[in-house]
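Q: What residues go here?
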């Protein structure tokens, strides 16, 4: 009867079927809560990669022979190697304003070589240190006179500047800073743009993010001038090359020092460094008679491997305590001693402890 049914629901502990039914209903409501609260899809979902990324991949494919984009004769190949592109600014993972892909949007689209500094670069430690030297220039927002020579030496023909990263969640440098570096550095010129202008919502009289996020084209491509370095112009960025070891400079330091040397030579009006070899590699190869350039690298630092910007500590002194839990404090440089700091008080050592 109705009275018995009401009594059973009022006191479910007296009826096992009613109790089981109520538990099932509650479980179904809880399981479906993501649906009726609109949270079934996690943050960062997207329907498709924007078309401007496919346009970027197509453009890089069409210019993969290293041909000058401004050349009136596209059939005249000025370089005999595929053009490698560097995607900037680097970010631990690809988290865009339009969605979270984690992998780079170019990954499924590009048929040509490209590189990016992310949280898990699948390259040797030396290559990571070299990429970090470029990333620091890009994130600084200041022109770098030796940047083009450094990129050319790394086999980079094009730089892809993206403005669709979400700076808040991707932990990346602001695209405006990268643009200032690229437009102000000699030997780099903008050759293509793709996509709409992107940026955060704006309100009159309101300045967001200290003015570092104006509307910018979603994608800008910059060409790297290899003309100042004939060796770099012939460098197959995706393979080996032959060079005269007698003229190759030896660098006493880490791979990151080459960018600093290129900057210094450019400021002094000297030609780009050209092919060079680290002193530790030169010693193993028996090439110890080449000119030697001494630098103050690699420095004894600790690095947060999960970041791509501002991820290294100040230079450490002997006896300084470790602050990170990494198995290795920094990306290693084989065969090269670390440059250590020293704490001084009134120019006297041993008076300061940290």
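A:
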């Amino acid at each position: 009867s109705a009275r018995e049914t009401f009594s059973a629901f009022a006191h479910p502990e007296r009826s096992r079927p009613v109790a089981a039914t109520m538990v099932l209903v509650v479980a179904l409501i809880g399981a479906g809560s993501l649906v009726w609260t609109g949270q079934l899809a996690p943050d960062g979902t997207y329907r498709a990669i924007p078309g401007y990324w496919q346009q970027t991949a197509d453009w890089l494919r069409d210019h993969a022979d290293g041909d000058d984009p401004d050349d009136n004769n596209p059939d005249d190949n000025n370089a005999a190697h595929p053009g490698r592109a560097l995607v900037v600014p680097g970010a631990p993972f690809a988290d865009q304003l339009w969605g979270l892909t984690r992998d780079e949007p170019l990954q499924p689209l590009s048929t040509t070589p490209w590189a990016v500094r992310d949280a898990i670069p699948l390259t040797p430690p030396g290559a990571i240190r070299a990429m970090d030297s470029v990333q620091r220039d890009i994130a600084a927002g200041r022109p770098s006179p030796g940047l083009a020579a450094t990129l050319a030496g790394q086999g980079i023909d094009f730089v892809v500047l993206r403005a669709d990263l979400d700076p808040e969640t991707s932990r990346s440098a602001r695209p405006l800073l990268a643009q200032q570096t690229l437009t102000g550095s000699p030997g780099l010129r903008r050759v293509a743009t793709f996509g709409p202008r992107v940026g955060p919502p704006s309100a009159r009289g309101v300045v967001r993010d200290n003015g570092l996020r104006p509307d910018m084209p979603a994608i800008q491509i910059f060409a790297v001038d290899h003309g100042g370095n004939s060796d770099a112009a012939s460098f197959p960025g995706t393979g080996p090359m032959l060079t005269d070891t007698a003229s190759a400079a030896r660098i006493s330091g880490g791979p990151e020092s080459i960018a600093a040397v290129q900057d210094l030579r450019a400021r002094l009006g000297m030609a780009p460094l050209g092919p060079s070899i680290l002193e530790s590699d030169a010693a193993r190869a028996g090439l110890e008679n080449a000119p030697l350039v001494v630098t103050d690298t690699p420095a004894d630092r600790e690095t947060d491997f999960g970041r791509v910007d501002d991820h290294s500590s100040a230079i450490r002194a002997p006896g300084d305590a470790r602050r990170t839990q990494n198995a290795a404090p920094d990306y290693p440089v084989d065969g090269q001693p670390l440059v250590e700091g020293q704490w001084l008080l009134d120019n006297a050592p041993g008076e300061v402890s940290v």
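A: Context that may help when evaluating the design: The two ends are 81 Å apart (CA to CA). The CA atoms of residues 15 and 54 lie 62 Å apart.
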